[in-house]
Description:
It is a single chain. This protein has 14 helices and 19 strands. It is α+β, with helices and mostly antiparallel strands. It folds into 4 domains: about 1-170, GAF domain (Beta-Lactamase, 2-Layer Sandwich), CATH 3.30.450; about 185-340, GAF domain (Beta-Lactamase), CATH 3.30.450; about 345-415, Helix Hairpins (Orthogonal Bundle), CATH 1.10.287; about 425-575, Histidine kinase-like ATPase, C-terminal domain (Heat Shock Protein 90), CATH 3.30.565. The strands form 4 sheets. The chain has a 6-stranded antiparallel sheet with strand order 3-2-1-6-5-4, with helices on both faces. A 6-stranded antiparallel sheet has the order 9-8-7-12-11-10, sandwiched between helices. Strands 14-16-17-19-18 form a 5-stranded mixed sheet, covered by helices on one side. A hairpin with a 2-residue loop joins strand 5 and strand 6 (about 130-135). The N and C termini lie far apart (about 110 Å).
Amino acid sequence: MSDELAETRERCERLSLLYQVANVIHSTLEPQKALDLILGEAVRLTRASSGSIALINPNTGLLEIEAARGLPSAAMQLRLKVGEGITGWVARTGLAARVGDVRKDPRYIPVREEVRSELSVPLLVDGELRGLLNVDSERQDAFTPDDEELLVELSRQAARVIHNTWLYEQVRLKARLFEALARVSRPITSPLNLDDALTAVTREACRLMNARLSSLMLLDESGEWLDLRACHGAGAAYRNKPRLSVAESLVGVVARRKKPVQVEDVQTSGRYQNVEVARTEGLVSLLSVPLLYGERALGALNVYTERPHTFSNEEIQTLAALADLSAAAIEKARLYERVVDLEEQLRQTEKLSALGLLAAEVAHEIRNPLTVMKMLFHSLNLQFPQSDPRSRDAEIIATKLEELNRIVERALDFARTIEPRFGPVDLNTVVEEMALLVRHKLIQQGVQLTRETDPALPVIVADAAQLGQALLNLVLNAVQAMPQGGELRIALKRLPVDTARPPSHVVIELRDSGEGMPEEQRRKAFSSLLSTTRAGGAGLGLAIVGRIIEAHRGRISIKPNRGRGTTFRITLPVKP
């Protein structure tokens, strides 16, 4: 009877103790604080020397210590596979393990030399093993079956606490996400430029992920390089690092494969390119997610922590959601900039339209008296002997009258925007005839012309005179860009290049070795008659070329050469 009473009293004391412990460990919803409280009570109840809580990383499947007491700092870096060590055995079997002398147990992996006995129990959340609760002692056979029973019961309480804190953290993370999205949406919906939108995105990414640094990289026009466009929390070392190759860099893999990538420690990773920059800036863990707009990758959004951290699935999904919103912001900002450019082009077009009407009116007013002058001059029938100086004067007057008439006609033609007269055209012949026209000019300027014609090039439907004029303007433009001489290459190609299929387009490429064109000038080369900044040119040449190619339903583009010079590429349909 006395034994039963003692057992009942002991059980009541244990339940009372567990009740007190439950009140303690349920006093917080902070995940890390809850783990520390659970471990502290486990060590106290079992009179252990040290202890730890190891959780299974859902991304790696490894056991990682999330809370420790009485263990060396190096123990926090320990990673164990399921089945490895005593704790790994518990994780694999789901059973508790009580070892009286760890020196005699081949499963034991030493973490602290003074440890002699260990007690490890599983942490089960909704029947699924999520981790382990371990206590150690420097005494041999320090833990009794009652200690094991007590720790198992504590682990049940702890599992519920851990589960609740995880749920709370997920809800809190989602709330922070919605707050961040709301904060980001405000500057995005306002008419900001692209740089302002990107800065807002990186700032909110840092807040949302509690990150040390956030950066946003965008693909350049070639799609081969990632350029740093915005960052928050970065120092000079990070801001000045070189651009990243899409093919060779870790972040390039994110943009290329359109999938997130995380690195636990970029300071030691062989995949990370800028290790020294990471050490200088104090960057440790990296999460990089793609910026996707539809199916198209625009770049990557990156966050770095200053301590080792494994990003959860919820964190990855959170940053990915922010990246999706950011991609929409980028496209919106780009569209806004295009609208601004179009408005400027519209204003310029209106100005040019007025100028064209004025030019046509002036040309028309000049042509009438000019016609009278020509008629009167010819009616005078001024015939002088060859020895008379007036004979030469009469010839010059006739010549100049004809030149004035041609100038007036060209002004009227340009104002009328003459439609092309389509017919069969051999581009090889057009290029050869144009080369004959400019041969003396090229020799004078010291420019060597190389022609790469194609005898198999198809005959296209076009206006030979207008195409000749366009090529002539481009060649003269190239010559002006090479005042000290250089090389000019004209190449004719067909598309597609597969000889088994009939070509649908032909390509004319003019590549010079001149001074090159600034990006702003390249962008507006065909949109404005007066956009040129080159001395001695009015900007009419490229504008005329653009109108001719547009009238032929073709495309023309300008790109800088590697090293020096510019390439003009004209693509024309075989049948417009």
